Amino acid sequence: MRTRVPKFKKKPVVLSVMLSLAGSFGVAAENIENQEQLQVTVGQVPLDRALQSIAKQYGKQIVFFSNVADGLTTEAFSGTYSEEAAFNKLLEGTALSYRYINKKTIAIEKKNVDETVEGKKPAASTDTSAQSAEANSGAVSKTSKGKVENITVTAQRRTQNLQEVPVSVSVMKRDLLESASTAGDDIRFMSARIPSLKIESSFGRSFPRFYIRGLGNQDYDVNASQPVSLITDDVVQENPLLKGFPVFDVESVEVLRGPQGTLFGRNTPAGLVKFTSNRPTQDFEGYISASYSSLDTLSTHGAISGGLTDTVSVRVSLLNQTRSDYIDTRAPGFEQNDILGGYDDRAAKVQVLYEPNSQFSALFNYHTRDLDGTPTVFRASAIKPGTNDFVDGFDRNVVYHDAAQRATQTVKTEGGSMKLEYFTTDYTFTSVTGYETVEMYSQADVDGGYRVSSFADPSGYTGELGTVPSFSVESADGIPDHSQFTQELRMASNELGAFDYQAGVFFFTEDLDIDTFHYNEDGSLKRYLTQNQKTDAWAVFASGDYEVNDRTSVTAGIRYSKDKKDYFSQRIISTASDGEFFDPMYADTKDSAISWDLSAMYQYSDDTNLYTRLAKGFRAPSIQGRVVSGSDPKLSVADSEVIHSVEVGAKSDLLDNAARVNFNLFYFQMNDQQLTAQSSFDEGAAKELVNVDKTVGYGFEFEGEYAITSDLLTTLGVSYNNTEIKDENVAISTCSFCTVLNPVDENGLISVDGLSLPRAPEWIGNFTMRYSTELGDGELYFYTDWSYASEVRFSLIDALEMRQDPYLEGGVRVGYLFMVDNYDVEVAGYGRNITDETALIGGVTINNLAGVVNQGRTWGADVKVKF
Asked: Does the global pTM surpass 0.70?
């Protein structure tokens, strides 16, 4: 069989072409590393101790994949050795090999049966070599017959084997990542692809809302906080608009479930999603990918990486996604074809890595995004009363907007970070400085239709598709100015022995301006509200790992957080019906909290680890000012929420590493949970923040991976999440157009006691299968992925119309991998939502039963070239 191994060689012609696209920078001659020769003396001691000792001498740290070195000793030897020679000598005659996860971290693991190249060291500045990238993606290598690859994660701020981390964590596999995102989809492609993870948005390609184990926030306010944090390249993305940055050229995607308040902080009571970009390499490498699919959708992205000098390397990553408008409006007098649904989404990342020696590294990151498109398309009176079915005559590609010509959404984000690391024999010192900013303007026909009646005579409204009664709603939100600054400093020990630890401090500051507009039917401005919020927060944290014995380890962490917000809002323009309220409104919140976690890992057998974890998490107070209209404006403030969680689990490698099974059970109780209540009033959607007394949840998560043969790999994920609100006192406004099932009190308000959380499916399931076979000089493969989410409600109002039915979505991909000279080439055809299921995925009840529909079936093809 022809082995497909990437060739990292200089290609002057390709290099010149790529540099003209990515920007101008020079690439120096290929660096040949001169390894340091050290005097090494090793006695007849346990192998793991010898490896740790030698690693420290060369400024490295060791990661053991399972207890592979248990019971082994090394023969005494002495002499002058290079790094590679020393490790080869130590592992000589064993069934073990070593692999560089990055320049500073070496993994010790069992040899593959068919392994032909062992312990090959990457280039000096390569943090993510082809080997480690493949390992992190969980892909099956052709040199691993019928085996699943080890997966490394950084869930505890250290590079560790997934199976030895006492946290419920999932890694999105490379095949799924590439297949699900090929058709130009935004970050929502991850929804239900990982157990207990749900993602949705009513803002189109921006402002994703994340839910883990049912905990999330369905609020669309641009000042809304979320209990699921998003970390990109070690920098928290706090504002919801920052969370929508496109996913491309990434090394790993990790989802950590349960409170993560010790090491990550910043509003993580439900968990976090962590993205890590591919880092610069000294060797010249890169890729170009181009895809074309239904609805005139074009997606291109690529990256180029290489060394400028022997100490400086650069990686430039580019993305461009476009779709033509394809939705027609048929509102009388406003008819126009192909006016909604399109977008132009561009993004770039530039990284510079400076490594002057083996002790210090500096990684500089700049990233930017420019989105120009249309917002989520609402569809007036599209839902049959008393059901959640679409009315007769509904068409995905037709709406009845009377303001479609003014619908627009622009989002511009820009940011940078600087990660400095200094390595000593025993400690690593890290500094991460981050800056983010976003500008946004989004204007939409929120009622989704055209007006056919008035307050004086409502008889003209009969609920016909596309019509709205009494008044129309066209509004816009903007962020004219925003800045976020973060700074983290931490120190971590490097395998000192039985006890290792890390500690640090974290600082966060944000300044956010918000504009809110309402418009008359002719597009003239009717209302205008301005808001500003300043947030300052800081924290100190510490975490330690202690090996009680050969089979048991304990991890404990604690974090003290303090958060302060100052808020201001003022009406600038209002209407007579709202009253003359133009005085500034102020609010401020202050709170501090202690978060912690305690976990234990026990090696039940050579292939199975058992763990348990207790944790407390915290989300800071929130402020919102939905006072653009109404005669009695009031700010809305929610107190801090606190969660306590317990989980127990097992992580097993089975069938001689041909299969992996991870399973856990969990229970949580959240006190004073921040939720968003929805009602209808005047000419807009009134929202307010509420704290419910208590929310409890329990369930399980299962993930399995099985390499049936070396050519057939399957994965299966299942999660069950049961959530219940327990509060007999909180009552909210009802919905005039809905069939409401909530109990109604004497004041006409509805209770939320006993309800499950909004947007929280009880069941999530996902399945993938990849089959490959040799064909000619290449490889033909077939890949399919499926996801399932059970029924969800859209809000705290339990209305028959405002819920999504169980939803099953599948994708398929058929491709051919081959080589042309030293280039890896992949040609593939694919389909997304191949069953073409039409589903209600959102609803609006301002003045009619408006719905939001999912994306239809997509067919496409793509080409990818790696070099």
From this structure: yes
